[in-house]
User: Fold this.
Amino acid sequence: MPAYLEGSRARVVAVLEELIAEQRRRSPGIEDRTEGRLEGDPYGPVLYDLMLDYPLREAKGLRPALCIATCRALGGNLEAALPTASVLELYHNAFLVHDDVEDRSHVRRGGPTLHAAHGQAIAVNVGDGMLALTLRPLLANIERVGLGPALRILEAMAEMSERTVEGQAMELDWIRRNTWELSDDDYIEMVVRKTGWYSFIIPTRCGALCARSDPKVCEQLERFARDLSVAFQIQDDVLNLVGGADEIGKDARGDLWEGKRTLVLLHALRTAAPADRDRAVAILAKSVPEVSLAGVPSLLARLEDQGQLAPAGRAELERALGLAELRSAAEVDALMELIEAQGSIDHARRRAREHLEAARASLEAATRPCSTPATGTSCGAWSISCWSAAGDRV
Amino acid sequence: MPAYLEGSRARVVAVLEELIAEQRRRSPGIEDRTEGRLEGDPYGPVLYDLMLDYPLREAKGLRPALCIATCRALGGNLEAALPTASVLELYHNAFLVHDDVEDRSHVRRGGPTLHAAHGQAIAVNVGDGMLALTLRPLLANIERVGLGPALRILEAMAEMSERTVEGQAMELDWIRRNTWELSDDDYIEMVVRKTGWYSFIIPTRCGALCARSDPKVCEQLERFARDLSVAFQIQDDVLNLVGGADEIGKDARGDLWEGKRTLVLLHALRTAAPADRDRAVAILAKSVPEVSLAGVPSLLARLEDQGQLAPAGRAELERALGLAELRSAAEVDALMELIEAQGSIDHARRRAREHLEAARASLEAATRPCSTPATGTSCGAWSISCWSAAGDRV
Assistant:
């Protein structure tokens, strides 16, 4: 990572901490409470403290880094991009909080998900609170980057949120309909929406807007960002299958446990013999139980062992609770074996490399006319920072 | 309702329908899909269609009516306020979708809640999608009402969302800590945040901003709006206890089933004999089970009747699933009897009337200098529309 990006993550976290502290101070009625009318801080423990939970966990800070790096490379300075970069990090973490509820995920960045630790109600509200806090810094941008760029950044955030929920909706619709006959292009359309827009395209666009740069440059950079996002996401899916739990900060092979549509898995299903595919789809049709039911399967087994529950009653309860739907470790292993037999990880790596090459070409086209030695950085330095933030993983 | 407000609800719904239709058209890649690459509309069934579900159900349209009425009374026209009023309705419905998930509510406006019908994942995402769509019309406001008012409306929306999640957090914190020793003032602070800001204060402020009116007038109107919101909310709580299910569009006595902190219930607990209070608090400590577990209690009872499940096993399962926590109809009746014995509904009605009187006084102070016969309406007509939208219920 180039020198001018070092420490940017710490700066971003500091901005978020100050944003939330300011919010606590601004909240009307706080003076009544210090006079003892209401005990303690009624929002802190279930709102403002929790907004910082995910952002303070170990993370790469990819989105703010891309925004800041783009701004610097195009002649802007760190101060111009910092609030916008921090808002991107806040959006990212808000999306994660809600996604974890939606995906029933147990682990995030090496710790329990917010809803696993505090319940769904608090997690949904904390996510909404984080989204609410994105607006003020973007309005304050007017003084920092000028009215035109500030308004275009607000529009960019609108577009980003719209695309993100569309990507999430595509995936939820496939889950709901148990759809597995999907091409690489279907997958790419979904992940570009679900994560590409908010992780790559909009951070890049916002960085360029903070530097008040030419819309044409923005356009070319967005092609670069789109391809980089595809390469990144495919590699993320590969890592989930071949990496250890420490490395990925989530459940190992969590994507198979959760039955996620990944380029890897979709390739395995497309190329498998019909009988193998049908067996895999039957395994994948099973849904993930609610986090709150995690201990119930073993309880049912024990009650049956102790003669307190008849086998037929257990089966009926498992159906009613959606537990018959749980994938077993053996079934997850079977999916992994199919993936290996079909060479699907190699296929995914090839596709990732293709998109990385396309990204490189777009970057070269975009940066040819925009070297900015005056700032002490250049598009060359910027591209290095992009690879180090994202591309090296492929 | 005065003539100039008639039909405003239909106009607001039409704006929301067009906003969502435009969003579908704008979504990139739609042209690929019509060429058959992806089957059908991948977002419609789980995103855009569902965004209109709550807004199209029978509702009063209180928030947009307040915004439009305020704008008209202060000399603005319907067209100036319509987009902002529609965004307020969109926010309101997005909050309802997420609140219903958080409160585990089964019924909303006479139909199943969104998460009861489509699952939590889709409901959380639809709420996020509705929030995402609020931003563009507010940016387009710049051309309609001018830059200054448009930016102040955006700030108002930020403040509104912040206060709303704080109110929700206060309530969730009380639930989490099983706190019941709360004064009328505690309750009022919570409900003003949770619903007063987005239902009364900000719709009024936005209406005044759409009419480009004096900030001083705004300030006085906000005192009016705050008191009206308290009166309205207390009356809503009373209706929940004494009205039929048809009238309130939710579960009858749903607040008692859900164990909600209402001014009525808190008064009953504060004034009851210690033994009665302890019994009531024990009933209220029980939590509401997940919607997905609705059929499980009767299944457990049947399995025990059939000799498939031992009584001890049933008790253990009920604890593990949080079903031992379910309130019974007899327990809800006991709470209602306590409320009646303590005269708590009369107390609540008195408090509601006090706030209504305070609202009336603030309104008179605010409207003395601002009669605007030129528009064919006046603050008198406006106050009538406010009462007919909200105040008459008290």
Q: What stands out?
A: Residues 31-38, 370-381 of chain B have pLDDT under 50 and may be disordered. Strands of chain B lie at 107-108, 111-112.
